[in-house]
Amino acid sequence: MSFDNANVKKLPVGSYDVSIDVKPETGVGVGDPAPVTFTVTITQPTAQDTQPPDVQIVSHASASKFLLNQPIQVEFTAKDPLENGAGTGVNAVRAFISACSGGFKVDLTPQLVVTPELPVVADVEVTATANITAAWIGDFTLTAEADDRVGHTGSAATSFSVGVNVAPLPPIAVPGRQFKVGSTVPIKWQITGYEGHFLLPFENIKITISGPGGTTEERFAGDGAANIRWELDGSGNAIQYITNYQIPTEGAYTVTVSVPGVCGGNAEQGSFTFTASTKGGKF
């Protein structure tokens, strides 16, 4: 049985006894009236926290590029909205770096410095920071998350990449230099990281030499003159890489240098060019 009574006025907060007398319709049914009494309690409506914290990444900017071994400062803010008094405040924050469709992940949460101390009430902004080193080569995503006290999670994400600098060395690097068709040219280059520091040799390095007419040749590390070798300094870092290349025809050549990335395979890091002519120099 159910019923409505639209004539009941809005009642203030409190407890009310309600009595109902049920009488059979005249000529229908049998038995005496059946009175029912129960209590109705009216309370103030309770506001519900329905929104997650707002998370904003301060640094680094999206699509930032860093060099291998470069320091990176991670910073983000989080604030749970007031929601007319329903907000419960930020209760926890997290951050992590990922790549390779989730196959690579570094948890930054243990390194986060959070101010003010958690938990906080609604509408109070917290700032989380961490200092890390760009120790991997590839494309990455930084994700920051924050929870409120009822379990809502807000998040923000930004992308960044880490690589190395590639620079040609003489004779390729000599401006305006052309090389004679049929000659063997020592292609030399150096690879550096943050602040120009030399790095340990990339044993799985690869170069692609692209020539006239769409010809390409790939070369890898090895002991032969046509392979990639390197020279080391006293600390064991590679100060230059070299491969000898016999120029087959006249035209422009591009050398693309790739090194192993965090997701496996090789990641292109840079390129340089040289020109061959029938009237070139001794090389």
Indicate the overall shape: elongated
Catalogue the unreliable spans.
Answer: none
In CATH terms, the superfamily of the largest domain is: Macroglobulin (MG2) domain
Counted beta strands: 20
Report the span from N to C terminus: 102 Å
- How big is the Rg? 36 Å
One letter per element, helices H and strands E, the order comes to EEEEEEEEEEEEEEEEEEEE
Identify the CATH architecture of the largest domain.
Answer: Sandwich
Could you characterize what this model shows?
With 283 residues, this protein is mainly beta. The protein has 2 domains: 54-163, Immunoglobulin-like; 165-277, Sandwich (Immunoglobulin-like). It has no helices and 20 strands. A 5-stranded mixed β-sheet has the order 4-11-10-6-7, with no helix packed on it. Strand 15 and strand 16 form a beta hairpin. The radius of gyration is 36 Å and the shape is elongated. The N and C termini lie far apart (102 Å). The relative contact order is 0.15. The mean pLDDT is 91.
